[in-house]
Amino acid sequence: MKIKFSPEAVTDLQRVVKFVENKNPFAARRIAIDLQEGVEKLKLFPEIGLPVLKAPDPAQIRDLYINDYAVRYLITDEVIYILRIWHDKENERHL
Is 95 exposed, middle or buried (0-12, 13-18, 19+ CB in 10 A)? Predict the structure, then answer.
């Protein structure tokens, strides 16, 4: 199974890391590593995240929680698409 990031997810990841980097570069690097390692686990366990009940197909759209961050993704037959990434203090409706 392959992992692909949407342009929005790439922007989200950059935003999250940059925000923390201003205060603590080491923590920003750790967050980036933790998120990448968590996403990589989806290759072996694509259904590890929680179904997004409000999604049209909750079995395919899921949220993976990694520390204080949520990663929303879509499962297809061959690819897992990372759709969005946000900190739990952010409101997902405004992303």
Answer: middle
Residue 3 has pLDDT above 80, yes or no: yes
CA distance 22 to 89: 18
Domain, as residue range, for 17: 2-89
Percentage, residues of the chain above pLDDT 70 = 95
- Per the domain annotation, does 66 fall within a domain? yes
Distance between CA atoms of 13 and 5, rounded to whole angstroms?
10
Domain count, the chain: 1
pTM score above 0.85? yes
